[in-house]
Amino acid sequence: xxxxxxxxxxxxxxxxxxxxxxxxxxxxxxxxxxxxxxxxxxxxxxxxxxxxxxxxxxxxxxxxxxxxxxxxxxxxxxxxxxxxxxxxxxxxxxxxxxxxxxxxxxxxxxxxxxxxxxxxxxxxxxxxxxxxxxxxxxxxxxxxxxxxxxxxxxxxxxxxxxxxxxxxxxxxxxxxxxxxxx
Length: 182
Prior knowledge:
6 helices; alpha/beta; globular
């Protein structure tokens, strides 16, 4: 009932249990008709892979974070590395990718403040959608973020935009309450 904070194995096991709980939530959503999966794969190409009826696959990155560490930001290694993995899947499996999901117990920065907008995954995604749908130019702060992410992901700016357009950032249950929610 208590975690040994001096033993990193306890933390690792808690994160694995959380990831498995997310797979159970996806299975439940499939059962009630909110997903159209015919199979769920754990630790196969990604944390979770949802095989869809249409032959496409949804890729899930499950990340836990202590809420006191704040919101997820585009400059966090876990976010950048997840996007890099999504870019890799997009290249490796052309025409087989359905959606990408970054799922976490922690929330995502959602700020228009000039000093924070470049770090906001939510505002970045909104700006890319606006640019695509309405030809609205992306602000300088977010352009810098796109350039930085494309360099980190070893891809073009158009490729990272394509991946982001196909990515959802999902705030999932807290690490301490997911079992009661399931």
